[in-house]
Amino acid sequence: MRPIIAPIMAAMLAGGGMAGAFAASPPFAFVRKPALLASPVVTVVDTRPDGQCRQATIAGAHCLSPADLLGPHGRLPSFRQINWVLGTAGLAGRGTVVVVGDNPVWRDFMAGMLFLCGQPRVRVMMQPVDALLRMPAVKRGPGRARAILAAPLFTAAARSTLVVFRGELSRSLYRTPPPVLLDGRSEAEYWGGRIRAARGGHIPGARLFPMRLAVRAGMRRAGAPAFYRGAIAYAQDPLTGIAYFTLLRAGLGIAVRVYPGGWRQWAAQPALPADAETYPALPVAAVAATGAI
User: Fold this and answer.
1) CA angle, 150 as apex, 148 and 151 as ends, to 5°?
2) Quick check: 211 pLDDT over 70?
């Protein structure tokens, strides 16, 4: 295990477990309580593809996948635009929402978006929908598709202070002390060995804590290191970054903020600094055409 990862894992494994994380952040938590799905005071959101949700899901569930929220190439719209989409899915921003799904990244992204948009209480159901539908106590039925118009309106006040934008983040790097940054990508991406953006590497000072290790820490009921409260989490893009935010905040109880643009947005601006900076290698034919060889 790389030294930069070890302090995070050691602190978590010495903590009080995921139950303690729920107590630290009661509005936002992972649960294994299928009985919640039958409660008349909760709204269920199914994050699977629309066709699957509409065909069969938990009775009364609202169909809403990341494809409904994200723009071209995974762009994250404004809160105003997202609130309108949430309204077309029949969500008003009141009470408790239980988020279910088969794809953990999709499920955690949607849960994180609802929390950031101001939903008072968000619960992330850990069991996949397929497993839930096989339980005798869980009623099934067709999902509720999105409408053309927003009815009702989603009126919750966004938790906008938890979102950090690129300009704010770049300025904060020069403050004393700089912010704690957590990079949820793979080790190969962190060190620039694998490139899925304009360049490889990581934001200066970021500490590597891959999403897979965050999941493992949650499964081992590891606690939350207090010294990472207020850290800024990011991953590759809005989809993975907000899913990572959910893992850390709801799963491990770390009161993080999120830079949703992620490494892809940061790397696209060449004036911004990077550690372990690498660039994609040109094919041999392209290099030969330049006369360099």
Assistant:
1) 110
2) yes
> What percent of the chain is modeled with pLDDT above 90?
78
In the chain, count of helices (H) and strands (E)? 13, 13
Q: Is 120 helix (H, G, I), strand (E, B) or coil?
A: coil
Supply the range of the domain harboring residue 222: 161-289
Query: Tokens for 67?
Result: 């494809």
244/94 Cα distance (integer angstroms)? 24
How far, in Å, CA of 229 to CA of 87, rounded?
32
Q: Which of 159, 194, 226 is the C-terminal boundary of a domain?
A: 159
With 60 as the cut, is the pLDDT of residue 128 above it? yes
Neighbours of 288 (CB within 10 A): 11
Give Dmax (Cα) for the chain: 70
CATH assignment at residue 229:
3.40.250.10
Interior/surface letters 231-259, b for 16+ CB within 10 angstroms, e for the rest? bbbbbbbbbbbbbbbbbbbbbbbbebbbb
Cα distance between residue 196 and residue 277, in whole Å: 13
Task: State which of 134, 159, 184 marks the end of a domain.
Answer: 159
Strands 232-234 and 257-258, bridge-based pairing: parallel
The structure tokens listed for 215 are 């999941």
Average pLDDT over residues 238-260: 95
Q: Answer for the pair 159, 250: CB distance below 8 angstroms, yes or no.
A: no
Full DSSP string of 102-125:
SSHHHHHHHHHHHHHTT-SEEEEE
Measured in degrees and rounded to the nearest 5, phi and psi for residue 234 equal: -150, 160
CA angle centred on 291, ends 285 and 293, rounded to 5°: 70
| CB atoms inside a 10 Å sphere around CB 160 | 10
Lowest mean pLDDT among 10-19, 29-38, 51-60, 221-230: 10-19
